[in-house]
Design goal:
The chain has helices at about 45-55, 70-80; strands at about 5, 10-15, 35, 60-65, 85-95, 100-105. With about 110 residues, the chain is of the alpha+beta class. It has two domains: about 1-30, no CATH class; about 35-105, Translation Initiation Factor IF3 (2-Layer Sandwich), CATH 3.30.110. The strands form two sheets. It has a four-stranded mixed beta sheet with strand order 3-4-6-5, covered by helices on one side. A two-stranded antiparallel ribbon has the order 1-2. Strand 1 and strand 2 form a beta hairpin.
């Protein structure tokens, strides 16, 4: 079953596995590492939003998380849900924002 997505510019077909195969404008076919700036997400749903986002990171690719503080509790949650699945590196450490690169290794 394919899911058709209509955008103002085009129509793309996305496989049920979540991969577009580069047939749309979602950016999945680029080498650019996506960033998720959680500072704008309400605290009450922040962790759930990040957990959902990291579940979509493919092996060998990364997501840069931008947080208002060192996200150690959140990183613990991620590792608890998927032990050893991510290599974590800090691209920037405060004082206003922490940029944490999560690279899926398994």
């Amino acid at each position: 079953m394919d899911i058709s997505i209509t955008t103002p510019d085009d129509v793309a077909t996305e496989a049920p596995t979540g991969g577009c195969g580069g047939n749309c404008t979602c950016g999945a076919a680029t080498d650019e590492t996506p960033a998720l700036d959680v500072r704008a997400i309400p605290h009450s749903i922040r962790h759930a939003s990040v957990l959902g986002a990291v579940s979509g990171v493919a092996v060998g690719t990364s997501l840069v998380l931008i947080a208002p503080h060192d996200p150690l509790p959140l990183l613990g949650e991620i590792d608890e849900r998927e032990p050893g699945a991510f290599d974590v590196t800090y691209d920037e450490r405060g004082p206003d924002a922490w940029h944490v690169r999560l690279t899926r290794v398994s």
